[in-house]
Amino acid sequence: MALWTKKQDAYIRQLEAQLYSLKAKDQAIESAMLVIEFSPEGSIRYINARLLNLMGYQESELIGKPHRLLCPEAVMNERDYQQFWNRLRQGESISGTFPRRDVHDQTLWLEGSYLPIKDEQGRVTGVLKHASDVTQQTQQQMTHQSVFEALDKAMAIIEFDIEGHVLTANQNFLSAMGYSLSQLKGQSHRIFCTPEAVASDDYQHFWSQLRRGQFVSGRFQRIAQDGRSVWLEASYNPVISASGQVLKIVKFATDISAEVDQQQAESQAAHMAYEVSLQTQTTALQGVGSLKQLTASFNQLFADMREQSQEVTRLAEASAEIGQILGTIDSIAEQTNLLALNAAIEAARAGDSGRGFAVVADEVRQLSLRTAASTREVSKVVVQNRELNSQVVERIQSSLSYADIASEHVAQVEFAITDIQKGADQVVSAISAFSNTLSH
Fold first, then answer.
1. What is the rounded CA–CA span in Å between residue 427 and residue 187?
2. To bridge 231 with a disulfide, which of 101, 260, 267, 339 should be the other Cys (CB 3.0-4.6 Å)?
3. Following CA atoms 103, 107, 109, 112 in sequence, which dihedral angle do they give, to the nearest 10 degrees?
4. CATH class of the domain defined by 262-439
5. Model's pTM, two decimal places?
6. Can you list the positions of beta strands (E) in 43-123?
7. Average pLDDT, stretch 28-32?
8. Of 40, 87, 42, which is closest to residue 64 (Cα–Cα)?
9. Which of 22-31, 349-358, 371-380 has the highest mean pLDDT?
10. What are the backbone dihedrals phi and psi of residue 105, each rounded to the nearest 5 degrees, phi first?
C-alpha cells in the first residue's frame, strides 16, 4: 500500500509539473500573442486582453458573439467563409494573414493560425486562434504592391541578375523592344546595346556601379529586336538584401523615343533657321552696303545736277546780256540808217558834187539794214536759247525734286534694311541660344 502511494505521488507530481509547464507556456503565449477561442460553430468563448485592447472591445461585448462580427463585410459574403469553418470543424488547421475589423470598423490584419481543439475521440470541441498584429506591415506591403502595380501599368520594367542576364520583364518593356518574355529570359543585357557601346569602358563601369549597389539613371539608347533605336529615360535600381548583398537589378523606364525624335527634329530645324538667319544677316549687310553706295552716287548726281543747273542759269544770264547787246546794236543800226538816209538827201541837194558821198551813204545804209536784219536773227536765236535754257532749268529742277524723293525712298529702304539686319542679328542670337539649349 505504501509502495502504491509513492507511485501515485510521483504520478501526481509529474502531472503537476506538466500542468505547470502548460500554464507557463500558456502564459507565454498569452503575453506575446493575440489569443481567441471559438466553439465549433464560430461563437466566441474566450479572448485575451491583448486582442481586446487591439480591437477596442470589452470582453462582455464579444463573449458568445459570432466570429463574423470581427470580419469585414466583404469577407462574410464570400463563399470561402463557409468553407473556412467547414474545414475547421473537420479538424483542419488554417494559417495565413486575415483582415479583421475593430470596434471602429477599421481594418486590422492578423497573421496567425486557427487550431482545432479535439477530444479523446478526435471530435472538434473548439477552435483556438493564435495571431500577431501585422496591420502596419501588411498596409506597407499593400502600398508597395499598389505602387508597383501602378508602375507596372505606366512604365517599362525589366529585371536582371547581377551578371546582367534577364530575369523577367513586363509587357510595356516587351512591347517597346519588340520581344516576347520567352525570347528574353536568360539573355544578356548586351542584346539591347550597340557593339560600340558594349565595347566601351563606360559600359563596364556601368555594370560595376550596379554590382556595388549604386543607383544609375539617365537617358539610354537601346536597340529593339527589329534594329530600330529606342530611347529610354530609365533608372537601374539594385535590390539589396539585409546583409548588404546585391540580389538583382530592377530597371524602371519610360519610352521617350518620340520625344527624342522631336528634339532632334527641332534641333535640325533650329540649325536650318540659324543658317537662313545667317544668310539673311549677310544679305542685309550687303544690302546696306549697296544702298550706302547708291546713296553716295545719288548725292554725287545731285551735286552734278545742281552744278549743271547753275551753269545753265549762268548761260541764261549770258544770253540775256547778249540780248541787251543786240538791242544796242539794233538801235545803233537804226540810227546809222537814219544818218545814211539824211546824208543821201543832203548829197542829192548838193548835185554832182555830192554824188560820191551819196554812194557812200547808200552803202552805209545798206550795211545798217543788213546789220539790223542780222541782229534780229541773232535775237531770235538768243530768245530761243533762253527759252531752251528755261526748259532745261525747269527739267533739272524737276529732276532734282524727283531725285530728292528717290533719295528719301533710298534712305527709308536703308533704314528698313538696317532694321532687318538688327532683327536678323537678334534672330541669330536667339536661335543660337535655343540650339545650345536643345543640345543640353
1. 51
2. 260
3. 40
4. mainly alpha
5. 0.51
6. 44-47, 94-101, 107-118
7. 69
8. 42
9. 371-380
10. 65, 25
